[in-house]
Fold Light-harvesting complex-like protein OHP1, chloroplastic isoform X2.
Amino acid sequence: MATSSLISSPSLLPTKPLTIHRQNQYHNTTTFRNRASFKVLAAKLPAGVEVPKVEPKFKAPFLGFTRTAEIWNSRACMIGIIGIFIVELIINKGTLQTIGVDVGKGLDIPL
């Protein structure tokens, strides 16, 4: 249903035959029965909508580092560090001691 109304819209009906100019030879496309030319009209802006005066410039981020991504990354890092401090206070051990790494015994190298 949607395609039939789209095809029958007045903006897609052929307006005039397409003429191809090639090195002083004129080829009229109306001789080919399977080809048709179409006139496509661009959409108009609704009333009250203004076109921007300057086209916005897009700077490609350097390796994906955008300002917004770095702000959220730093917030997640702060939450993680505070969480580690809270866990260390609750279990009364450091992070390395919690995962089983012996700390505070030196290098154990005889002199």
The helical segments are 2-7, 67-91, 95-98. Residues 1-9 have pLDDT under 50 and may be disordered. The beta strands are 19-22, 25-28.
